[in-house]
Input
Amino acid sequence: MKRGLIAATGVAAMLVSVAACGSDGDDDKAGADGYKGQTLTVWVMDGSSPDGWTKDVKAAFEKKTGAKLKFEIQQWNGIQQKVTTALSESNPPDVLEIGNTQTPSYAQTGGLAELGDLKKSIGADWSESINKSAVYDGKQYAAPWYAANRVVLYNKKIWAEAGIKDTPKTRTEFFQDLDAIKKKTDAEPIYLPGQNWYFFDGLTIGTGADLVKKDGDKWVSNLADPKVGKAMDIYKQYQSFSKAPKDKDEATPQQGEVFAKGKTGAFIGMGWEAGIAIKANPKIEKDIGYFTIPGETAGKPEGVFLGGSNLAVAAGSEKQELAKEFLKIALNDTYEGQLAKEGGVIPNKESLQAQLKGNPAGQAAAPAAATGGTTPLIPEWAAVENAPNPVKTYMTAVLTGKSPAEAAKSVEDELNKRLSQER
Amino acid sequence: MAVATERQDPGPVAAGVRRGGPPPGTRRPAPGAAGRARLTGAAPYLLLLPALAATALLLGWPLVKDGLLSFQNLNMRQLIQHLTEWNGVDNYREALTSEDFWRVTLRSVIFTAVNVVLIMLFGTLIGLLLARLGSKMRLLLSVGLVLAWAMPTIAATTVFQWLFATRFGVVNWVLDALGWHSMAHYNWTGGQFSTFFVITVLIVWGSIPFVAINLYAATTTIPGELYEAAALDGAGGWKSFTSVTFPFLKPFLLATTFLEVIWVFKAFTQVFAINEGGPDRLTETLPVYAFIEGVGNQHYGMGAAISLLTIAVLLALTSYYLRIVLRQEEDEL
Amino acid sequence: MKRSPLARLWPNAAAVVLFLGFVFPVYWMFTTALKPTSDIISEDPVWFPTGGTLEHFQKAMDAENFWTLVGNSFIVTLSAVGLSLLIALLASFALARMRFKGRRGFLVTFMIAQMAPWEVLVIAIYMLVRDGDMLNSLLPLTLFYMVMVLPFTILTLRAYVAAIPKELEESAMVDGCTRPQAFIRVIFPLLAPGLMATSLFGFITAWNEFPLVLILNKDPGAQTLPLWLSSFQTAFGDDWGATMAAASLFAIPILLLFLFLQRKAVGGLTSGAVKG
Output
């Protein structure tokens, strides 16, 4: 009760300060050159923004506002505490890239500015599946920047060797193809380690399962739900075609490097992972093909986890208006389209998907985006994904012989503990 | 690097040079003594002042702050909004009643014990070996030891990940080549025991040089006459070791063990970087546990409480040695 | 006493085996860094690189601000080590040579200070530094690194000071030196090995420090090399060539320093290690 009171006061204080910042911004807006002499700092993650995009956006922004723009590339290592502490500082970065699934936890801290008016002015046609993560408690706390989802990367040579003419349109066809590779070639049909958890998350989205459910006012594990079990069965079926370790994820070893050896029929990964394979073995480039992960029926692709990022404005930034100016420029059709084109990522609007033309990986990914989903968009979820992610533990348990129900039971306590951690 | 040795047993040799007891044949002038007494009034405190001030300000203050945080509910939101939410002893209660904490504590103690025993045992053996080698071979081995010793922890950890990599890792290749084919693609970080094995090899590899080189240096100060005397008494190799070498080195070994206990117990980079405490949190030692609970899960108050408990455990582990130091310093000077 | 050939052989054989064991990881780091990628990910390890490439090193050094980071690392490390030596010298002299009330207490204080688990204190430190408005500066970093190595430096130097026969100092005083003069002229030169040994320890500790700089200094202009090295592991995943090149670059200054100082330091260990 006391804590609630303190928390409420805190939020009130925060709102006041945001309001104050907002009015500062309004003052600044006075002249066209009102921003002159200011510098806007933008944190983007390593690998997110292509060079051409960065350069063009910077030029456009500086021309329009007269202010300077500074992109600071952030490394992934320790990024969460870095962002948390940065948001607590008096001079935080003004705009930050925040992973879509992490946005709710930052939104609930009060560290992000509310962007409802921005959504009104430029966000009318943001894809709903992509924008979902930027909304918390009914309020817009970030602007969707881009999304990315997994596709099947396959080795055309091996598929041809197995006598497969066309890429599969349904999951059943896909399994038949894998079986053909297994029988007719000496290649591993698919490389799928036991803990490719985002692929599994996509499968649960496909079966309509929820990983968590509400129990009173608390979130608890829903892994025992038969729909989750069904998704896991599908995963297990895929995994039975692979010799990959059951207790590792797709990054150890990098599945692209395994694929690069040319002895693997396919793997499920991000489009850019082809680059890893090509780097390890340039000769593989001409053999790599992509297709959308097929679903149960031909018309509807498999559910996918939509990774991606939002751009948020720090509540403590003193340049709220300038930050919004930046977002208006960076997210307009020209630059959002350029990002999709250069980066091969799914843009935040369906109308811009045409920019993916000429990018086979992006084109394979795009069809699934509309029906994609994310991990549960609750602040509590962030704790679940901290290593060791209990869902990964669950996956390994099922793959090594436990029934989904048993496996769910064995990790439930840990999962619930993490979901109930005080915020 | 040398070890601050707290001499327990004066040993036969050092008495002459040892501080304390009136040095034989001292030329201390009588008038000087009075001057010294005056000088020693404030001087030691003045000399210690910078060190104490720095320690109090830069270590004491953060510790106090950490203590205060440990009684707070401090998560992302509170940190970002600069809120202070006291929650009494909740963090301590939660930590101390959780099975995890005790399991991790026990694991840390065993982990420390195993590593320290291995380090001291092999460090001592290699140190004695150095003493036995000819000068060329000694130089060769010393260079090897120094290279291992000098590898920065982060770099060494990275290298060991590469050595033990599942695919293309040279360790697996060697095991396979030696006929142990099931190890060809062995995943070292897949299990608790194998992960600890890698961490232990890394730590022991990196820590032995310190012990071995210092121990060798120490043996060179054992006067030859002692061995001659022992030989006259008919002592063989083993006997002269137990009657001369070991007693002479005992204080050194004790001090080194103390340091190794601290260093191994606190080892963070090695344990964390190899497998981030995994699989399934089964290789978390106390510092890693404090870090994951506090910083990783962003429950900073909880992390603070665990970090203070970690210090308490370490103090308990080293209390034996600290007591010896206290007792012995009483007799000195 | 003549030893049988076998008895002479086994220590040498053991030495060679141990040498290989200790050197191999270092060797493997450097050779991996120099090998072309195809040799790194090959089913059979390439033990001796044939064609070397500097490609991995280029990639590693290609990082933005690389030289700023190098500069920062050196500034912070050298200042931290220098300061701690200075402060420790004063303190160790008092602890080794003087008799005063509370001496044991101070000694134990430093022993306990040595146990501080810095990794888990970072948030407390961060909040103090943040509230003192000192973020993104090399100064707090330097000071904290200094204190991280201070206890060890004091305790070790104390042993070195204690090992220097008092008579030397006293005879200097008889010859008309004041105590500080005696210290500077007589003791200080004899302490050189001790100073080197402790500075090695300080150097390696400060050079390695990672968790603190990660959250104190978010401005890329105020960061240090460990951040750069650790970013490799995540940014390049299993790109072992570049990672090993980065690790090599990171290790080289320390390896050189050790090889350069170790002879003198080890010589000095004799006094420091035993004659506590």
